[in-house]
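hiii so um. not sure if this is the right channel but i have a protein structure encoded as tokens and i wanna go backwards to a sequence. like what aa goes where. can anyone help
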């Protein structure tokens, strides 16, 4: 039960902490800070996708198959995860944030709704990732321990801190009150525990295809990194700051996963 609570609550608390930056900082998030946060989040998500999701997927498949058959579940699941987020981006409002236009694109939807919707959608794969790891631990046959849940939850929580700030600060700059910006920024992460719970409740059905699901979550997370985080972190000036942030995030998540996993 403690492991379950960690998996469900710790990532969400990261979003809440990040959203609280709106009470501590000026109305606009500095360009260098935003790029550092985006780079850091990218590093965390890539490391988590590899060590916490793809490696367990490959290891489990290799226990029952060899050669091409051993890698196909991971390859298929990964491509399905990419395709899932690609489909979501095609049917929902697409949003790119940058330091020069923190209010986001103009639309018939309010800026607040656009921002909240986009970030909430892109939090979905992170919630799924935690849920899949929890399901792997619950199944007992994936070789995954409770420490893997802790590592994944901490990694995503760390990634959610800058993400929460990147949501709440532009909302404040767009004219919303600090309290409103904080609440909306925090709620953008609520889909994570909800998504994790849904996956866990389906553990009995998911267990036979868990290698696919682990790779699916990895593909979905990496789609967010490649499509959203890295392009925003690399454009304009100070891209080297995002590179440094990426390195720090990657190493931190790698250490957490190896030491705790």
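sure thing!! here u go:
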């Amino acid at each position: 039960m403690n492991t379950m609570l960690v998996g469900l609550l710790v990532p969400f608390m990261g979003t809440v902490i990040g959203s609280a930056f709106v009470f501590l900082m000026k109305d606009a998030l500095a360009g260098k800070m935003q790029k550092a946060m985006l780079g850091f989040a990218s590093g965390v998500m890539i490391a988590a996708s590899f060590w916490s999701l793809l490696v367990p997927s490959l290891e489990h498949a290799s226990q029952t198959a060899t050669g091409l058959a051993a890698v196909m579940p991971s390859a298929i699941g990964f491509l399905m995860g990419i395709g899932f987020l690609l489909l979501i981006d095609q049917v929902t409002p697409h949003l790119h944030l940058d330091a020069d236009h923190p209010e986001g694109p103009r639309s018939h939807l309010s800026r607040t709704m656009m921002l909240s919707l986009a970030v909430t959608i892109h939090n979905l794969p992170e919630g799924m990732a935690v849920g899949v790891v929890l399901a792997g631990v619950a199944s007992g046959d994936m070789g995954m321990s409770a420490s893997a849940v802790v590592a994944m939850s901490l990694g995503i929580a760390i990634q959610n801190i800058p993400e929460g700030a990147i949501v709440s600060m532009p909302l404040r700059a767009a004219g919303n009150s600090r309290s409103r910006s904080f609440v909306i920024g925090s709620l953008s992460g609520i889909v994570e525990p909800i998504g994790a719970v849904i996956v866990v409740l389906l553990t009995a059905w998911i267990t036979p295809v868990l290698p696919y699901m682990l790779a699916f979550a990895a593909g979905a997370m990496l789609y967010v990194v490649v499509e959203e985080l890295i392009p925003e972190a690399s454009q304009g000036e100070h891209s080297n700051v995002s590179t440094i942030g990426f390195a720090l995030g990657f190493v931190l998540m790698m250490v957490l996963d190896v030491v705790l996993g």
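oh and The longest helix spans residues 31-62.
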